[in-house]
Amino acid sequence: MSQTGSLTNWQIFFLMTQTQVGFAILTLPNTLQSTSKGDGWMSVLLAGVALQMFLVIIWLLLRRFPNLNYAEITKFLLGKYVGNFVNMIMYLYFIVTASFVLLRFASIIKEHLLTITPYWVIGLLMMLTCTYLAISDIRIIARFFGLISILFLFLFGISFFSFLLPLDLHHILPLGNTGIKEIAIGSKDCLLAILGFEVILFLYPLASKKGTTFLKVITWANVFVTGLTTYFVILCIMIFSESVLKQIKYPVIYFLRPLNFQMVDRIDLLFISIWIVPLAASIVIYIYMSSKSLSFFKGKPYRLVLMNSTLIFVLFTIAKKDPDSQELYSNFVEYLSYAVVFAIPCILLLFSYLVKKREKEVSY
């Protein structure tokens, strides 16, 4: 797992994109109706630009410590005790985020596919599958992610059937009608919807090509995810009116429901079945990152993965029993992401310049 030069550029690209493409894209067109409305696609593009700025900041930090991952950088810069405390915050974030993704995944499957199957059965089956893959070496995970990325072509192909429906271009016109302030507020929701890019914090030491090449790879991954998200947001806005989008929780799923063909029925169910794979990929990589965050753990790696998976499933079952707490759970994940994904890397980069520390000072 710690071998350097073991991940190719394509593998890093697929790891990043598969982690980012999750359940949030399914609900994003609905979420944006409370802020940027018909200009929601502009909020997505603005979020993509903001995300690129954070990617550059993260890249500048990782470049100063080319053979250390996120958890090792914190200990090197902040010391053993403070570093381990920060790593525990990161560990909590990855565990809670994974359980939140699992919660949303079970809700989608329960609502659209397995309506009479208990939530805990759906969650358990998903966790068993994800744990089996998360125990593997990161190179095996990367190869699997690269293999399943071909499913994006099927998702695009299925979405093209929506052009058979009435599309109203006036739903996105006039451009900028909601105002710059609302578009900027909507970009915050978009930024949270494409979280998952933090995986690069643990991939840089394993990259076969570092430096500007690594930056180009993660930049193209950001362009791909931003473009994919913008495409689905525009599609949903053109198909549904503003009043309808406010009522549909998963518009990316529902826009295919009216389509019926002689040999294929319920294309929306086929779409969901394919989308399950990116959701599972997100959980796998969050289990992996949570395991790498506890750098002080001295046991066998698979035991740590099993412990993390069990903790994720326990949190999932607790949150599912109390529907009122799910909104609080979502807010907790949001605010914790601000600290772990955005604030801590910026602070670490600034601190590394202030104390003038680089990896070359580390003794091996």
UniProtKB/TrEMBL annotation:
<protein>
    <submittedName>
        <fullName>GerAB/ArcD/ProY family transporter</fullName>
    </submittedName>
</protein>
<dbReference type="GO" id="GO:0009847">
    <property type="term" value="P:spore germination"/>
</dbReference>
<feature type="transmembrane region" description="Helical">
    <location>
        <begin position="117"/>
        <end position="135"/>
    </location>
</feature>
<keyword id="KW-1133">Transmembrane helix</keyword>
<feature type="transmembrane region" description="Helical">
    <location>
        <begin position="12"/>
        <end position="29"/>
    </location>
</feature>
<feature type="transmembrane region" description="Helical">
    <location>
        <begin position="335"/>
        <end position="355"/>
    </location>
</feature>
<dbReference type="GO" id="GO:0016020">
    <property type="term" value="C:membrane"/>
</dbReference>
<feature type="transmembrane region" description="Helical">
    <location>
        <begin position="301"/>
        <end position="319"/>
    </location>
</feature>
<dbReference type="InterPro" id="IPR004761">
    <property type="entry name" value="Spore_GerAB"/>
</dbReference>
<feature type="transmembrane region" description="Helical">
    <location>
        <begin position="82"/>
        <end position="105"/>
    </location>
</feature>
<feature type="transmembrane region" description="Helical">
    <location>
        <begin position="41"/>
        <end position="62"/>
    </location>
</feature>
<feature type="transmembrane region" description="Helical">
    <location>
        <begin position="269"/>
        <end position="289"/>
    </location>
</feature>
<feature type="transmembrane region" description="Helical">
    <location>
        <begin position="185"/>
        <end position="207"/>
    </location>
</feature>
<feature type="transmembrane region" description="Helical">
    <location>
        <begin position="219"/>
        <end position="240"/>
    </location>
</feature>
<feature type="transmembrane region" description="Helical">
    <location>
        <begin position="144"/>
        <end position="165"/>
    </location>
</feature>
<keyword id="KW-0309">Germination</keyword>
<keyword id="KW-0812">Transmembrane</keyword>
<keyword id="KW-0472">Membrane</keyword>
<keyword id="KW-0813">Transport</keyword>
<comment type="similarity">
    <text>Belongs to the amino acid-polyamine-organocation (APC) superfamily. Spore germination protein (SGP) (TC 2.A.3.9) family.</text>
</comment>
<dbReference type="Pfam" id="PF03845">
    <property type="entry name" value="Spore_permease"/>
</dbReference>
